[in-house]
Structures are given as C-alpha cells and as structure tokens.
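Pilot study result, target chain (76 residues):
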Amino acid sequence: MSADLLNESDDVATCYALHVVDSDPGSLLAVETAWGWASVLLLDRPPRSMLTERLGEVTAEQMDAVDNALRAVLEL
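Predicted structure:
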C-alpha cells in the first residue's frame, strides 16, 4: 500500500499494509478484494522481511477505494 519508491527501496525496513479479513466488516472503510475485505482500520507497518509472497494485485478501482478510505481515516 506504500508508494512504489518506498516499496522498491532496500533502505526502508517497513511498508504500509492493510489487513484482509474473511468477512465483510460492514464498514465504508473496508474494500472488497479477491482475497477478502481490506480494512483501512487495520493499517499496519509490518517488517518487509515478513512479506514473503505476493498474492496478486488489486484493480485500479479497488486502489481508488482504498485511497479514499485512507484519506477519510487520516483526514487528508
């Protein structure tokens, strides 16, 4: 969920990630994906070393929904 520059940098030990839950949390701050619901309320900064496999990519529409939810939560 971080900017590409941060994700590609070996100097940055963490990145931003959203937890994905199995069921709809019933919130406007959750975005449905192929793997479940990405909840902006569960924003995390895991160590990059814990991210061992790529599950896939979200669509541009899903990423826009995540962006909008993050702006709402972070008051940006």
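One observation from the pilot: The longest strand covers residues 36-44. A full batch analysis is planned for the follow-on phase.
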